[in-house]
Specification:
CATH superfamily: Aldolase class I
Structural class: alpha/beta
Number of strands: 10
Strand content: 15-25%
Shape: globular
Order of helices and strands: EHEHEHEHEHEHEHEEEH
Number of helices: 8
CATH topology: TIM Barrel
Distance between the termini: 13 Å
Helix content: 25-40%
CATH architecture: Alpha-Beta Barrel
Radius of gyration: 16 Å
Amino acid sequence: MNIKVCGITLLKQLQQLEGVDIDFAGFILSKSSPRYAGVTLSKKDVKAIEFDIKKVGVFVNQERDEILQAIDDYALDVVQLHGEETPYLCEEISEEVEVIKAFCIGDDTNIDKELEEYDDVCDYYLFDTKSGSDIRGGLGKKFDWKKLAKSKIEKPFFLGGGIGLEDAAKIKAIKHPDFFGVDINSLFEKEPGVKDMALILQFKLALKKR
């Protein structure tokens, strides 16, 4: 089970995630986010880091050139597109790094219809919870996970949206063949952008427990 910790804003916490073998670390590079990392994370320091953890830049409806510049500035391994980005943009970015295309799921969302134009242009999907605001992710709310079982998802996907420590057993019970990992954020924080490392480690151990 892969774990992606999103909303990292501190270099020390990135190093700590590497130390406990977390798989993916997400830096939100959209200025509208309360977890915007563009000020607190040094591009030079992040670029110089040679870790096994995959560095993920998270963008929301940003221009191609801005994304490509960030890939170079931070030596990103993966780009997560968390807005209404077109399949064409996904394809362009996927020529440089792996791409996670995020979809915000509500009660009325037809997941199959949302995905049909993106199957060939990204590497992973991420399913988050739809909100009524412009803020994407980090809301601490779940969508109906049963919708995933009813959908024809044929690409590795991350499950996000309101996942907390108490959800470990439910997550382990998911049997979807393309379930690749979980995306955790706000319910593992002391404050926006500052993670509770003890909770993250507890969660990792709970996922491993039989």
